[in-house]
């Protein structure tokens, strides 16, 4: 079943620059400020290798997503590609995995934003939940105003975040050079399994580029805009992550970086900056963390609402979620539902969504993306077929290096989602 021409379409207002920054705003957040510290605790200095492996897997997936989005530029990303090139069950599973993983991630980003902001202001941590709730409300209202205003807000957020990370690299570089290879020896402190586990976690830190695909319906000249934006976005992110991991480990050692993730309400990079420069440097990084979490929250609301829009169009979710505003710039009901869902998770106060669970869900999502890319015709294909093959195999391989309890719960959620999907299909047939 394809989306008919009678469906109202979102306006195309994004160029390469805006689409690239949307991707960067989605990627450079929890990934660089949190997951590098977590992965360093698993793999030691070899986290640098894990960052590179995660980037390579992300590049395969990014290129598959780019050529799918260029040929099928509708909101929904791999949810739409699964339907068009595979089967309804594959399409639904992709959409379901995206919603499950990213709604919790958005709530985590809101709580992270609130914690970092209150640290800067010296306010009691008891205000974390109300502050996070308010952040969700504000970001939801911005998204309700359409992609153009969301784009302007995103550019401001990404700019501040990149400046703070540039500052971190500059202040850590002299210490990293002076320390030489001391903090990188031994390079491998664990097993190959530890490096692969860390690689799976670092892959999650790159997956915001998928937001470019989910916004494909709003990109100008999508066949040119989307691939260019994805390639630039991934190249910039990979270089930034490797630089951050290398200079921070070189300056303070892996124990400080990994240990910082255990500290309450402290971003690992903020702790590194305090260790190197004192309170002033920590403040700069805290500001960067605050803007980064806002960027993640903004872009997740955008991406989640576009997937819900696509699912509403196909009756996989209630039909009212497919409605657009009068200007046809925003799927307003989808945005509201996403905002409410995130806000409810924020009210729980402490979302226990581990990076491992996010990794499994997202790796399954992108496995479906690569499988769909294998179905592209020679006329539609922008890149060699082997890229999709390697993307598919690497996703399935890394997905099962997370803890067994995580992927078992993930598989259970997939089965539960498919049961819902079959019931909905049966209702449509009966109707």
From TrEMBL:
Q: Which residues form the Amino acid permease/ SLC12A domain?
A: 19-400
Name a single GO biological process: transmembrane transport
Q: What is its main location?
A: membrane
- The organism encoding this protein is Fischerella muscicola CCMEE 5323
Q: Which Pfam families match?
A: AA_permease
TM ranges are: 14-40, 46-69, 90-118, 124-144, 156-177, 189-209, 229-252, 282-309, 330-349, 355-376, 383-400, 406-423
Q: Which branch of life, at top level?
A: Bacteria
The topology of this chain with respect to the membrane is: Multi-pass membrane protein
UniProt-recorded name of the protein: Amino acid permease
Cellular location of this protein? Answer: Membrane
- Gene Ontology CC, one term: membrane
